[in-house]
Amino acid sequence: NHSMTNLKKGLFELHIIGDPSKKKVLLIHGMGFQWKFCFKKVIEELKRNYCLILPELGGHNMQGLGGFSNVYECADEIITSIRNHRIEELDCIYGISLGASIAIEIALRDCIRINKLILDGGQFESMGIMKKIDAYFMAKEFQKVIQKKRMWSYVSKQMGYRNGNEIEVLYPLCCKRIQFDTLYDAALAAYGYDIKKRMEKLRMKVVIMYGENELFAAKSVSLVKEKCVSECEVYAYDNMGHSEVLSLHPEKLCEIIRK
After folding, report:
1. How far is CA 187 from the centre of its chain?
2. What gap in Å lies between CA 54 and CA 15, rounded to an integer?
3. What pairs with residue 96 in β-bridges?
4. Residue 42 contacts residue 254 (beta carbons within 8 Å)
5. CA 212, 189, 133: angle at the middle one, nearest 5?
6. Is 17 helix (H, G, I), strand (E, B) or coil?
7. Strand residue runs (E) in the chain
8. CA nearest 24: which of 90, 81, 73?
9. Is the pLDDT of residue 9 over 70?
10. What distance lies between CA 69 and its chain's CA centroid?
11. Assign residue 32 a region: left if phi > 0, alpha if psi is -120 to 50, beta otherwise?
12. Sign (positive/negative) of CA torsion 98, 192, 240, 253?
C-alpha cells in the first residue's frame, strides 16, 4: 500500500493506514518532522474508524535521503498520489506548519472533494527579502532541537515556547536524520509561500488552530478568512506554542477531526 514517486529532488512517499472504505483523513507533517513520530498518537486514536493518508515529505525520511522542493510541487505530488489510489474525496485535511501551507495549496486547487480543512500554526504570507536569512536561522535552531539543545531564546519566543519547553514539544516529532539542506529548503518553502493574491476560494469548512503564544500564526487568520466561502472556526490554545497541541494534547486535534 505504498506508492513511490521519484522526484527530481528526492523520494516522496505516501503511507496509507486503515480501511480504505472508511472516511479519508490526510495528515501532512511539518518541516523537520517525521510522519510517523509526528502523528503517532493521532494514528493510534483514529486508525480504526478512518483511513489515514500520510505523505512523507522529501528528505524527511529515516535515511536522510533526498531533499525538499517547494509547496507547489509537493501539493502536485500528493494530489497525483491520491488520484493514483482512486481516492475521490477527503473527509478532512490537517496540516501543521509547512504542512498547513501544503494543505491550503491542495484545498485552493479544488481538484479533490474536501469536507474540512484544518490549518495548524500556518503562515501564509511571504517574508519577502527576509525569507532566506530567516530560513537559515530556523534550520540552525531546528538542528539544535534534534540534538536536544535549547533554541536561541529569540526564536523559541517567536514560536511561542514561553516556558522554554521547545525540546519537550518538538523533539518527539522530529526526523532525527534530516540534513541541514533539507531543513533550510523546507523553511524557505514555508517562508516564501503566499496566498494573498490568490483568486481561488476555499469551499469547505475551515478550522484555523494555533498556540496563543505563537507570534505569527494569529496574523494568518484574516488572510485565510478572506478565502473562505463557508464557515471558518478559530481555536487559539491558551499558553501554548507551535505544534504543542499536536505533540502534547493530540486528543484535542482528534476531537476537531471527528467533529
Report:
1. 12
2. 5
3. 120
4. yes
5. 80
6. strand
7. 3-6, 11-17, 23-28, 50-56, 89-90, 92-96, 113-114, 116-120, 205-211, 232-237
8. 90
9. no
10. 15
11. left
12. negative
Segment (H or E) for 41: helix 40-46
Note the pLDDT tens digit of each residue in 75-110: 999 999 999 999 999 999 999 999 999 999 999 999
C-alpha cell at 122: 500556518
Interacting residues of 133 by C-beta distance below 8 A, sequence separation 6+? none
What grid cell was written down for 77? 505530488
The label of the residue with cell 536524520 reads: 177
CA angle, corner 48, sides to 208 and 88, nearest 5? 60
Question: What is the C-alpha separation between 38 and 57, in angstroms, rounded?
Answer: 12
pLDDT > 70: what percent of the chain?
Answer: 95
Sheet containing 3-6, strands listed edge to edge, beginning at the edge strand earlier in sequence: 3-6, 11-17, 50-56, 23-28, 92-96, 116-120, 205-211, 232-237
Output the pTM of the full model. 0.95
pLDDT of amino acid 11: 54
The C-alpha atoms of residue 171 and residue 210 are separated, in whole angstroms, by 19
Pick from 162, 159, 125: which is nearest to 142 by CA?
159
Q: What is the pLDDT of residue 66?
A: 79
pLDDT digits (tens, 9 = 90+) for 127-148: 999 999 999 999 999 999 999 9
Position 163 confidence tier, pLDDT thresholds 50, 70, 90: confident
